[in-house]
């Protein structure tokens, strides 16, 4: 658009009514169409621009189609582009015109200028009219063989577009294999990258129906392809690099030297100017080293600086995305950023979403050495102009207090907050002091002295008021005025609108009554009367309940309402470590930003097969564990590893009994073998026990299922299984991810079977005699979990089974996945009959 | 979908568009919709980012600048799309246009640093960091191969490079070896952590009682960097609970903007006195004391100094063309420089 269209402020003009302008344009276009005068392109351009601006404001200019096409027979690319935009717009809604368009575009596909060829091809494929796909095949085919890389690049994407219009046409024309050839041989990296993304999409979509596509998709992450791409990675542009790196994360290297080779090759990517490349590289590093604890720690060290740079440079959106990732990492390894806490100090003009995340980071990185500085900093935010952030930072101080051994200084700070006489500060601080007292009752004297001075009139927020009431009730023996404060509150019962506060008031009066009966008796009577007359059902019920229980027996009432309390050691974590792990698997995706695994915010049909499916959370770990277990040459090393982790675990547990606030972050920390075990335990042991039960370490001994060569078995008549089936754990894991659940059943075990199942090994040996091999197992009475696999004799068709057995209910749940879905029922019958024979001599 | 890929791409699109159109807003896009369309067409197809390298895009689609306007008038050729495909798409140096020719070969290297600092209520320097960029403007003929070395590369904490920088020489000898793109580009960005002091001090004092708050802010030079510090400014947001403010200074001008932002532009610090801002703030009627304290944001600029102390040692060219001019500059300005009160 060489003469810049300053004069062309079309939308601000008076809106043309349509008809007359269009016919006027038609006339002008017709005049220009045949003309060969110099400068004609300029006037054409002006006209085209007019046409398109009419089009964008919704005037139907489709009647100009013929003239437009005639006029575009020039070598001027801008004209062409505008014309393509025009025809592309009308072809969709007007099939008659589309046919005309196709002819016009097909002609341009043979133009001399590669740019025009490319553009025409792109427009042609963008028409997306289903009944015209036959016309696409020819130009695409020649486009893929074009000598100019620009055209090839466009053609590759064109193939993908064709696939989405009509998958069968695309596959029938054998385009995928042409793309594959191009991908491995083309000299232009953009073509290669486009091939890669197109193939990934096509084969993933095909994989559900065609076995060949599944195999092809597997070859994408096979060693030769990955190495080929990695060796050229520097030639790719930054976006294509992201694509390749994402692919590399799915590759499972065969040994550690391979891992180091890849990491060495990619190390300089961490210094790339594009944050997306950096983050993709980090993902590769983290995933490659998952099973190598030491290296994994070194990786954390290595990625620290690039990540911190990403946070502080770039747009706030970028900071936010990176901070979300940091938060995830810090949850797994709290110590990594503990000396870099200053990076998470909030800047004044950052948007509050970034500040909020930074506050979370500060809470997460706080440890013994930096708590003082962090808390000092947080306290400065309490006087922030931005009130939500001020509140958030007070809460952060509280959270840190709940994490630490040494809360001395923090308690002082919190008490200072209470004295700040700012209603929201007081409110937040009250809630925190309450939580703090629940965990550290030893601080009650200091706190109560300050809390006692707070006039309940200054506290308005229900949560804060409830907290204050709780303290009044709990520590009424230490607070001189407690009964009288409560009494005045009861008097103003009707002014209190929150049911939560009224409930707390009732309880507080009760507690106070047990401690100081004579002073509280009046208040209690009034409170119960008001409570019973209350409109709110819960308040009414509680008041009535208190009344009756007091009537029945006062000492029983005291035992119910005010039993001696144990200090709360850990406040429940909102997110299970399983979910956190799942999010970690989806590093560098929106899951991290949303803090949810992808299955929670995507529809089933949009989940790519590369993504994790619902039931896979535990399994990815099951597979890793199996990785440690089965590969025979590594068993020994791993044994040592396991021993080590066991003792480590014992240590953690020791400290956790003193102060379990540390348990959660430590347990879910990065040591991979270790983490995976914690995981499988948590998956297996009773869900309510949240996996950190002290007996869990015992389970490790039982966790190993070794693949001992099997005894020939008596196979069932319909289905013969390979007695010497072999499957390596990574393949298992991979297949489990990809295959859909063919069958899911629940059935009862025989009583003998239940009796025999004291340890997983017994069942493993039994199943092996039926040619069903175990790849991973775990758990202890009454919950056991197994992953089995079997192979069809004479064929390499695999069956994968997840089996959960509960011995207390004698129930077994199985999920079967199979390469060959049709035989999965037969296999399931076989599996069940094998299981039912367990324990019967 | 990797989130950063989306964000980075959108930022890139915005950069490219504003570079082409000299700004980015609704009107500009409406006026130049054809060029926007052309650019988007080249940058993304079917959801895959393609070419975003400005140098290459500029070759494919000429920006609508004065030069091309004049050119089109003179030559009568008004197409803003080059007739040939850019050579670089095929070359192995994707960021460099094929063989530019210059009569005068020039290369300029600028160190541009931003100082981020936080000074807390007690006047303690909580955090002080430099974020710096090495900006290069190169007009060199042919395919020049440059090596840039620093006198003290060890102070750099984390570095990020333009794709043209070769990794190995940096790894082994901290040398920046590269074939530059033509024109202006950001060769490298870096961070320097843990600086001990700031060039200027800002001492705010707020004392409030009986519904009034007395403000007194002093600004002065703390560590003379050896060059003049200019464009010193101070900005702060008045808390919402303030009814009116009466602020005066003994140097520079004070403005209170409509959104209760108070801005004090000082310029240079005079030799004879320390600039100070004094005045009173009147609080809302029921408030006795001020509970929310403003944060002062400081701006300044120092030409000729890179405060991190980073120094360029030398810039070498493998093949020295005739008439070569090399220029070096340094500049430090305040980034997120905050003083809390």
UniProtKB/TrEMBL annotation, chain A:
One of its GO terms (molecular function) is clathrin binding. Keywords: Membrane, Protein transport, Transport. This is Beta-adaptin-like protein. InterPro entries: AP_beta, AP_complex_bsu_1_2_4, ARM-like, ARM-type_fold, B-adaptin_app_sub_C, Clathrin/coatomer_adapt-like_N, Coatomer/calthrin_app_sub_C, TBP_dom_sf. GO terms for biological process: intracellular protein transport; vesicle-mediated transport. It is found in: Endomembrane system. Residues 640-653 have a biased composition (Basic and acidic residues). It comes from Durio zibethinus. The keyword Protein transport applies. Signal peptide: none annotated. The gene is LOC111284943. The keyword Protein transport applies.
UniProtKB/TrEMBL annotation, chain B:
Residues 104-340 form the MHD domain. GO terms for cellular component: clathrin adaptor complex; endomembrane system. Keywords: Membrane, Protein transport, Transport. The keyword Transport applies. InterPro entries: Adaptor_comp_med_subunit, AP2_Mu_C_sf, Clathrin_mu, Clathrin_mu_CS, Longin-like_dom_sf, MHD. One of its GO terms (biological process) is intracellular protein transport. Pfam families: Adap_comp_sub (PF00928). It comes from the Eukaryota. It is found in: Endomembrane system. Belongs to the adaptor complexes medium subunit family. This is AP-3 complex subunit mu isoform X4. The lineage of its organism: Eukaryota, Viridiplantae, Streptophyta, Embryophyta, Tracheophyta. The gene is LOC111277395.
């Amino acid at each position: 658009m060489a003469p810049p269209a300053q004069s062309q402020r079309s939308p601000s003009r008076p809106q043309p009514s349509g008809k007359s302008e269009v016919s006027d344009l038609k006339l002008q276009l017709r005049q220009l169409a045949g003309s060969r005068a110099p400068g004609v392109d300029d006037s054409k351009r002006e006209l085209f621009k007019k046409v398109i601006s009419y089009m964008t404001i919704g005037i139907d200019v489709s009647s100009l189609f013929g003239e437009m096409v005639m006029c575009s027979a020039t070598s001027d690319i801008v004209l062409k582009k505008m014309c393509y935009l025009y025809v592309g717009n009308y072809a969709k809604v007007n099939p008659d015109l589309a046919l005309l368009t196709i002819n016009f575009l097909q002609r341009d596909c043979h133009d001399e200028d590669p740019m025009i060829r490319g553009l025409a091809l792109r427009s042609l494929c963008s028409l997306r009219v289903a009944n015209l796909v036959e016309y696409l095949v020819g130009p695409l085919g020649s486009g893929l063989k074009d000598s100019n890389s620009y055209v090839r690049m466009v053609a590759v994407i064109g193939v993908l577009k064709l696939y989405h219009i009509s998958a069968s046409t695309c596959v029938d024309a054998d385009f995928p294999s042409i793309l594959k050839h191009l991908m491995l041989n083309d000299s232009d990296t953009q073509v290669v990258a486009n091939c890669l993304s197109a193939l990934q999409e096509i084969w993933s979509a095909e994989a559900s129906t065609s076995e060949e596509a599944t195999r092809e998709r597997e070859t994408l992450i096979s060693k030769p392809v990955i190495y080929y791409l990695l060796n050229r990675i520097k030639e790719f542009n930054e976006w294509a690099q992201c694509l390749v790196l994402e692919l590399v994360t799915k590759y499972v290297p065969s040994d550690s030297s391979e891992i180091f080779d890849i990491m060495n090759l990619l190390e300089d990517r961490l210094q790339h100017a594009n944050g997306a490349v950096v983050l993709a590289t980090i993902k590769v590093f983290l995933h490659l080293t998952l099973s190598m604890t030491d290296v994994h720690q070194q990786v954390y060290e290595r990625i620290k600086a690039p990540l911190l740079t990403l946070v502080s440079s770039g747009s706030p959106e970028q900071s936010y995305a990176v901070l979300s990732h940091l938060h995830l990492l810090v949850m797994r390894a709290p110590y990594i950023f503990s000396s870099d806490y200053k990076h998470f100090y909030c800047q004044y003009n950052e948007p509050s979403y970034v500040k909020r995340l930074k506050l979370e980071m500060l809470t997460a990185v706080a440890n013994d050495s930096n708590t003082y500085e962090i808390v000092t900093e947080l306290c400065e935010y309490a006087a922030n102009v931005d009130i939500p952030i001020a509140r958030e930072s007070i809460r952060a101080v509280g959270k840190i207090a709940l994490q630490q051994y040494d809360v001395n200084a923090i308690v002082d700070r919190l008490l200072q907050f209470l004295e700040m006489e700012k209603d929201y500060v007081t409110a937040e601080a009250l809630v925190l002091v309450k939580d703090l007292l629940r965990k550290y009752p030893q601080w009650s004297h200091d706190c109560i002295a300050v809390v006692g001075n707070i006039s309940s009139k200054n506290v308005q927020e229900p949560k804060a008021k409830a907290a204050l009431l709780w303290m009044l009730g709990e520590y009424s023996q230490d607070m001189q005025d407690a009964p009288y404060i409560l009494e005045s509150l009861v008097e103003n019962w009707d002014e209190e609108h929150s049911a939560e506060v009224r409930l707390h008031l009732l309880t507080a009066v009760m507690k106070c009554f047990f401690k100081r009966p004579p002073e509280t008796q009046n208040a209690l009577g009034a409170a119960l009367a008001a409570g019973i007359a209350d409109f709110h059902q819960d308040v009414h019920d509680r008041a009535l309940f208190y009344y009756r229980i007091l009537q029945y027996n006062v000492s029983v009432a005291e035992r119910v309402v005010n039993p001696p309390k144990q200090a709360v050691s850990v406040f429940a974590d909102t997110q299970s470590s399983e979910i956190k792990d799942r999010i970690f698997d989806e590093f560098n995706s929106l899951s991290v930003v949303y803090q949810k695994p992808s299955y929670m915010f995507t529809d089933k049909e949009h989940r790519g097969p590369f993504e994790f499916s619902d039931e896979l959370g535990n399994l990815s770990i099951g597979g890793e564990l199996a990785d440690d277990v089965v590969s025979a040459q590594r068993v020994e090393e791993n044994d040592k590893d396991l021993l080590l982790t066991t003792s480590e675990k014992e240590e953690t547990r020791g400290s956790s009994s003193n102060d379990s606030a540390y348990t959660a972050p430590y347990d879910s920390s990065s040591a991979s073998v270790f983490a995976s075990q914690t995981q499988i335990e948590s998956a297996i042991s009773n869900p309510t026990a949240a996996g950190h039960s002290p007996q869990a370490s015992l389970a490790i001994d039982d966790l190993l299922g070794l693949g001992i060569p099997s005894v020939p078995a008596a196979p069932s008549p319909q289905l013969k299984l390979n007695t010497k089936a072999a499957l390596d754990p990574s393949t298992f894991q991979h297949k489990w991810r990809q295959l859909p659940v063919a069958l899911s059943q629940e059935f009862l075990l025989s009583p003998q079977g239940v009796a025999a199942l004291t340890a997983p090994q017994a069942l493993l040996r039994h199943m092996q005699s039926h040619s069903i091999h175990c790849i991973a197992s775990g758990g202890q009475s009454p919950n056991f979990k197994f992953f089995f696999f079997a192979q069809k004799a004479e064929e390499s068709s695999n069956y994968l089974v997840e089996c959960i057995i509960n011995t207390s209910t004698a129930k077994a749940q199985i999920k079967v996945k199979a390469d060959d879905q049709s035989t999965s029922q037969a296999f399931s019958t076989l599996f069940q009959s094998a299981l039912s024979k367990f324990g019967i001599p | 979908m990797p989130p950063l890929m989306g964000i980075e791409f959108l930022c890139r699109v915005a950069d490219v568009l504003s570079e082409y159109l000299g700004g980015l807003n609704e009107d500009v896009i409406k006026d130049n919709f054809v060029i926007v369309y052309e650019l988007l067409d080249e940058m993304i197809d079917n959801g895959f980012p393609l070419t975003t390298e400005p140098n290459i895009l500029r070759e494919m689609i000429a920006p609508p600048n004065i030069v091309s306007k004049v050119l089109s008038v003179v030559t009568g050729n008004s197409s803003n799309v080059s007739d040939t495909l850019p050579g670089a798409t095929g070359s192995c140096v994707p960021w460099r246009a094929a063989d530019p020719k210059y009569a005068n070969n020039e290369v300029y290297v600028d160190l541009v640093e931003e100082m981020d600092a936080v000074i807390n209520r007690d006047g303690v320097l909580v955090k002080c960091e430099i974020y710096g960029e090495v900006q290069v403007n190169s007009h060199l003929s042919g395919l020049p191969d440059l090596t840039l070395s620093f006198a003290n590369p060890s102070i750099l904490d984390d570095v990020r490079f333009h794709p043209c920088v070769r990794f190995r020489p940096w790894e082994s000898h901290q040398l920046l070896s590269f074939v530059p793109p033509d024109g202006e580009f950001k060769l490298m960005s870096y961070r320097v952590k843990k600086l001990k002091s700031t060039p200027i001090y800002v001492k705010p004092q707020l004392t409030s009682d009986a519904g009034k708050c007395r403000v007194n802010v002093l600004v002065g030079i703390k560590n003379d960097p050896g060059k003049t510090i200019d464009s010193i400014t101070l900005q702060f947001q008045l808390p919402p609970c303030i009814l009116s403010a009466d602020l005066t200074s003994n140097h520079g001008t004070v403005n209170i903007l409509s959104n209760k932002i108070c801005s004090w532009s000082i310029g240079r610090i005079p030799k004879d006195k320390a600039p100070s801002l004094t005045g009173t703030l009147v609080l809302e009627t029921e408030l006795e004391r001020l509970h929310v304290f403003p944060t002062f944001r400081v701006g300044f600029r120092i030409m000729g100094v890179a405060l991190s102390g980073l120094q360029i040692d030398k810039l070498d060219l493998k093949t020295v063309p005739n008439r070569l001019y090399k220029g070096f500059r340094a500049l430090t300005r305040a980034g997120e420089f905050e003083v809390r009160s």
